[in-house]
Design goal:
Thrombin, subunit H, 31 helices, 830 residues, alpha+beta, 4 domains
C-alpha cells in the first residue's frame, strides 16, 4: 500500500469518526444510548463498546478502535444505508434520509437507466457488475469490466474473447421480477485514460438514457448524492458489517445515499487521476455504479474504485464531457454543456500515445471483484518480485505475467524459494498460459461440483486494514521482531483486536501450503473457491460467514452445485455450518475432510502450556524471545480453544473445561466463556448432517498425543504414541464409525500437498471413489514410536540462517515446511 493511499485511508477513517460525532444529537437522530445501542447491539460486548464510544464522542475524547467499530456496526446501517429498489423506485426511507422521498421523481428516472451486466463464460455466469444506459443502444461501465469481454484500447482493433458473452438486465431487484434483459453485442470503446468503456446492446424500449453532468456543480463538496448499482460482497472484509448494511442480500439493485467529499487522487491506468470521492456505503464492491446529484438528478460520476470503510471513487462526468469523441461520435448527453477551455486536458493525449496498443489483457474472472488498474497491477507485481516473501504475496496470475515478461529471471526466482521439484511443477503449469493467456483459465467441466476449499488453523494470511506493512500472519519480519503473539491477541469478546487496533481481515490461504493442490484441481476441470476466514474467531462465527459466502456464490452461480474440501479446523467450520443452516443440503453435494479433528485434539493444550512446536519455533526465531507470550495469546483465541478434545472421546479431558484446573497447573487461564463455548459445540459437530456426505482422508503413521496425565495439582500431556498425523489423533478424525475414510501418510500440515490426497479429492468428486487404502477404527490399535525431534531443544545458533533470511524479508518453502511440522527437528539449511 502506497503512503498516499495510506494517508487517504487515515483521512477518510477520520471522517467516519467525525461523522459519527456530528450525527449524535443532531435533529432526526435520537440519542443512541437508550434506543439504537440497546435495540441493535448484537451482544453485551458490542453494547458496552458502543456505549463507551458514545460517551467518548460526547466528551470530545478519542475512540479506541473497538469502540469505533461498534459504533460503525450500529450507525452505518442507519446513516449510510443501502435502500431496496422495487419496481424502479424505493420505499420511504428512515431518518435521517426520509427527505429523499421529495427527490423520488428524478431518482426513479435515474434508477431506470442503471442495469446489471452479467458476464458468462461458456454459458456459465462468472460475475455481475453495473452499467448505465447513456445513449440509445449504448451502456457505460468500467474499463476493467469491459476487458473481461475484449482486449485492446480505443475503438479500433478491439479483440473479443470468443468464449465470453454478456447481457444487461434493468431489473434484478430485491424481489424477484421478470428480467428485462438485452444481449451485449460488442465492446465499442475502451478508454485509453479513464477506467471507462462503452458497450453496444440491443435498443431497450421504455428506458430513457442517463443525463450526465457537463460541468462541475457549484459547492459540490458536501452535497448529498446517491449511488445506484448492484453491490457485491467483499469477502476480504468484515462480512458481518456488510451483511447488516445490505441485509445479507447482494448483487441486487440498490440506492445508497451519502455525501460528496471532493476530489481525491486515485490510482488508475495512467497513474493517479483526479477522482470524485463520495461516502455512500463503501463496504461492498460496486464497480460501474452511477453517482447521482440529488438536486438535478444527473449523473456526476462513474464509480471505479473503493476503499473499505473509507470512500468510493468515481470518474467525474464533467471530465468525460471534455472528450469530444464521447459527444460527437457516441452521442452522450451532457447538461449543462461543458464550458470552453483555454486548452484541452492533458489526458486527451492518451488517445494518440496509446492508439492501437493492446493493453487490455484479460484478467482472471475470480479476481474481477479486486480488479486493479493496469499500472497498479504492474506496480504490485514488481513490488512482489522484489520483496523477499514475494511468492506468498503473489498469485498464480502474477507469476503467469512475470513468466511472460521475463521467463528466465522468474524461473530463477521460483527455484530460489521453492524446492527444485516444486519450481519445475509451477513453471510447467504456468509457462504455457504465459504465452497464451486464455488457456490459463480452461473451461471447467460443467458436470463437476464447484470446489469450496476451507483451510486449517493459521492457514490464511491475516492483515490489518488501512495500515502500511499490514500483514501480521505470515510475515517473516514480524516473526523476527517478535510482534506476532501480541498482534494476534483478541479482546475478551473474541472478535476485536486486543489492543484497539484496526481489525484484521483474512487474506489468501498460505500459498506455500495450498497453491499447488488448488492449481491442480483447477487444471482437472474444477472451479475452485478458496474460503478465507479469521481462524482466531470461534467456529460458529466462521460457520455463519461461510453461510453468507455460499449464499453470495449462489446468487451469481444459481445452477452450480458445490463440494467442500476442508483441512483441519476448516472441516469444523464446514460441519458446524451444515448444523446451523438448513440451506446447506441444497448447496453442498459432498465433502472431503483432510485431517479434520471432529473429536478435537490436544494441540490447543500444547499451545497453552508452551509446548506447541510452531509457537516454540516462532519464539526461537525472534530477536526478542523473552518478550513473547504465545500461551497468553492462545487463551484469547476461540478458534483454537474450539479444537480442545471432546471429553466423551478422550478420557480425562473433562478437566480442561474448568478454568480452575488451568490455574492449579500454573498455566495461563482461558476464559470460562470460551471453555464453555468449546464444550457446547462438540455435540453439534458430531451431529452435523454434513457428515453423511463426508469422506475423510486420515494419516495414521505419525505419533500423536491422545490423552492427558492428571495429577493432584494439575495435568500433563501424554506421550506422542497414538496413531495420527502428529496433530490430530486418527481416532478424532474417525470419531463416527460409519464415516467413509481412506489412508494418507503425510503429517498434518502437509496432508493437502500429499499427491495421494490431491488425486483422491479429484477422483472422489468426479466418481465417488478413489484408489486409496480404506481405513477403519479397528485399524487404530497400534502404538507408534515417539516422532524424531519430539524432545529436541534448539538454541538461537541453530536458526541463525533462518533469522538472516527473515531479517531481509525472505520466506522460502522449506522455512514454512519447518515451521509447520509438529516437532523441532530438521532446521532448514541456509
Amino acid at each position: 500500500m502506497s503512503f498516499e493511499r495510506l494517508k487517504a485511508i487515515e483521512h477518510h477513517l477520520g471522517r467516519i469518526a467525525t461523522r459519527v460525532r456530528n450525527r449524535i444529537g443532531e435533529g432526526g437522530f435520537e440519542d443512541p444510548t437508550p434506543s439504537l445501542i440497546q435495540d441493535y447491539a448484537r451482544d453485551r460486548y458490542e453494547r458496552e463498546a458502543a456505549l463507551r464510544g458514545w460517551r467518548n464522542l460526547r466528551a470530545g475524547r478519542s475512540l479506541m478502535e473497538g469502540e469505533l467499530d461498534a459504533l460503525e456496526q450500529l450507525v452505518l446501517p442507519l446513516h449510510r444505508p443501502s435502500l431496496d429498489i422495487i419496481e424502479d423506485t424505493f420505499n420511504d426511507p428512515d431518518p435521517p434520509w426520509n427527505d429523499l422521498w421529495q427527490y423520488q421523481a428524478q431518482l426513479s428516472q435515474a434508477i431506470r437507466a442503471v442495469c446489471v451486466i452479467k458476464i458468462y463464460q461458456s454459458g456459465e455466469l462468472l460475475f455481475n457488475s453495473t452499467a448505465v444506459l447513456v445513449a440509445p443502444g449504448l451502456v457505460m461501465t468500467n474499463r476493467h469490466v469491459a476487458e473481461q469481454l475484449a482486449s485492446g484500447v480505443g475503438t479500433e482493433g478491439l479483440k473479443p474473447h470468443p468464449e465470453r458473452s454478456a447481457v444487461i438486465d434493468f431489473r434484478q431487484e430485491i424481489w424477484a421480477s421478470e428480467p428485462e434483459e438485452s444481449p451485449v453485442q460488442r465492446v465499442r470503446l475502451i478508454h485509453p485514460h479513464w477506467d471507462m468503456a462503452l458497450l453496444e446492446v440491443d435498443t431497450v424500449p421504455d428506458r430513457e438514457v442517463m443525463t450526465l453532468m457537463g460541468s462541475e456543480p457549484p459547492f459540490f463538496e458536501a452535497n448529498n448524492i446517491v449511488t445506484i448499482g448492484y453491490p457485491v460482497l467483499d469477502t476480504e472484509q468484515d462480512i458481518d458489517l456488510q451483511g447488516r448494511v445490505f441485509r445479507e442480500q447482494f448483487n441486487v439493485k440498490r440506492l445508497q445515499p451519502g455525501q460528496a467529499l471532493g476530489y481525491h487522487p486515485t490510482p488508475s491506468y495512467n497513474g493517479d487521476v483526479r477522482s470524485l470521492a463520495v461516502d455512500s456505503s463503501s463496504l461492498a464492491i460496486n464497480s460501474g455504479a452511477a453517482i447521482i446529484d440529488l438536486d438535478t438528478g444527473r449523473m456526476i460520476g462513474l464509480q471505479f474504485f473503493n476503499i473499505y470503510l473509507a470512500g468510493c471513487f468515481a470518474i467525474p462526468t464533467w471530465e468525460l464531457a471534455q472528450d469530444p469523441r464521447l459527444v460527437e461520435d457516441w452521442g452522450l448527453t451532457f447538461e449543462p454543456s461543458p464550458p470552453q477551455q483555454d486548452s484541452p486536458p492533458a489526458w486527451l493525449a492518451a488517445w494518440e500515445t496509446q492508439a492501437g496498443e493492446s493493453i487490455g489483457a484479460e484478467a482472471p474472472p475470480a479476481q474481477l471483484s479486486r480488479q486493479k488498474p493496469r499500472r497498479e497491477e504492474e506496480h504490485r507485481l514488481n513490488t512482489a518480485i522484489l520483496g523477499g516473501d514475494w511468492y506468498e504475496r503473489c498469485e498464480d496470475e502474477d507469476i503467469v505475467e512475470a513468466l511472460r515478461r521475463s521467463p528466465e529471471a522468474t524461473e530463477e526466482l521460483l527455484r530460489d524459494v521453492l524446492s527444485p521439484q516444486q519450481a519445475t511443477e509451477v513453471v510447467a503449469a504456468l509457462k504455457a498460459p504465459a504465452s497464451h493467456r486464455h488457456s490459463f483459465w480452461p473451461n471447467p467441466d460443467p458436470d463437476l461440483p464447484e470446489l469450496v476449499f476451507v483451510p486449517d488453523f493459521m492457514g490464511c494470511h491475516l492483515s490489518h486494514t488501512g495500515t502500511a506493512l499490514s500483514r501480521v500472519w505470515l510475515d517473516p519480519q514480524r516473526v523476527l521482531s517478535g510482534e506476532v503473539a501480541e498482534a494476534l491477541k483478541l479482546s475478551p469478546d473474541g472478535i476485536q483486536e486486543a489492543h484497539g487496533e484496526r481489525p484484521m481481515t483474512p487474506g489468501a490461504p498460505l500459498r506455500f501450503k495450498y497453491a499447488q493442490p488448488l492449481r491442480l484441481w483447477r487444471q482437472a476441470g474444477f472451479v475452485v473457491h478458496p474460503f478465507s476466514f479469521d481462524w482466531r474467531h470461534g467456529v460458529d462465527r466462521n460457520a455463519d460467514k461461510l453461510h453468507l459466502y455460499l449464499e453470495t456464490l449462489r446468487l451469481s452461480r444459481p445452477h452450480a452445485t458445490f463440494a467442500f474440501v476442508a483441512h483441519g479446523l476448516g472441516g469444523l467450520v464446514a460441519a458446524l455450518y451444515a448444523h446451523r443452516h438448513r440451506a446447506w443440503s441444497d448447496i453442498i453435494q459432498r465433502a472431503v475432510f483432510i485431517g479434520v479433528p471432529l473429536g478435537g485434539c490436544f494441540m490447543p493444550v500444547e499451545a497453552l502450556i508452551g509446548r506447541f512446536a510452531l509457537f516454540e519455533k516462532l519464539r526461537l526465531i525472534s530477536v526478542n524471545p523473552d518478550e513473547i507470550d504465545f500461551p497468553g495469546m492462545a487463551t484469547t483465541l476461540p478458534g483454537l480453544l474450539d479444537m480442545l478434545p471432546n471429553p466423551r472421546l478422550f478420557e480425562g479431558s473433562e478437566v480442561l473445561y474448568t478454568q480452575a484446573a488451568w490455574t492449579e497447573a500454573g498455566i495461563p487461564q482461558p476464559s470460562q466463556r470460551w471453555l464453555d463455548h468449546s464444550r457446547n459445540i462438540k455435540a453439534a459437530l458430531l451431529q452435523s448432517p454434513l457428515l453423511d456426505r463426508v469422506t475423510s482422508l486420515v494419516s495414521v503413521d505419525h505419533g500423536t498425543t491422545d490423552h492427558l496425565r492428571t495429577y493432584s495439582d494439575g495435568f500433563a500431556l501424554g506421550p506422542r504414541e497414538a496413531p495420527g498425523d502428529g496433530v490430530v489423533p486418527a481416532e478424532s478424525a474417525l470419531v463416527r464409525g460409519d464415516l467413509e475414510a481412506y489412508r494418507l501418510t503425510y503429517p498434518h500440515a502437509d496432508l493437502v500437498q500429499e499427491p495421494n490426497a490431491i488425486t483422491a479429492v479429484r477422483d472422489l468428486l468426479r466418481t465417488g471413489s478413489c484408489s486409496l487404502e480404506p481405513l477403519h477404527r479397528r485399524d487404530l490399535s497400534q502404538t507408534l514410536p515417539m516422532p524424531p525431534g519430539t524432545d529436541q531443544r534448539l538454541g538461537p545458533e541453530d536458526v541463525q540462517g533462518l533469522r538472516d533470511r527473515f531479517k531481509t524479508g525472505i520466506l522460502m518453502s522449506r522455512d514454512v515446511d519447518w515451521l509447520m511440522i509438529p516437532n523441532l527437528a530438521s532446521v532448514p539449511s541456509p
